[in-house]
Amino acid sequence: SPEFVNKPTTQEVKQSETAVFEAKVDGYPIPKVIWLLNGKPLTPKDGAQVEMNAPTGDAKLTIPKVD
């Protein structure tokens, strides 16, 4: 079963700063991580940068210029 090794934490940033959320997941098969905002997946179109390193299970969401 997929599980979080490290869960993302709450972030507080000032307006126009960058927010970074990180998590680590484990499971077989390798879990797919989808970051959501109000129940909808975040995409580069929304200004979100999503990274996933499948071999290590590291997932990262970067939101530049938070408003």
From TrEMBL:
InterPro entries according to UniProt: Ig-like_dom, Ig-like_dom_sf, Ig-like_fold, Ig_I-set
Taxon lineage: Eukaryota, Metazoa, Spiralia, Gnathifera, Rotifera
Pfam families recorded: I-set
Protein name in UniProt: Ig-like domain-containing protein
Chain positions covered by the region annotation Disordered: 47-67
Protein's organism: Rotaria magnacalcarata
Span of domain Ig-like: 2-67
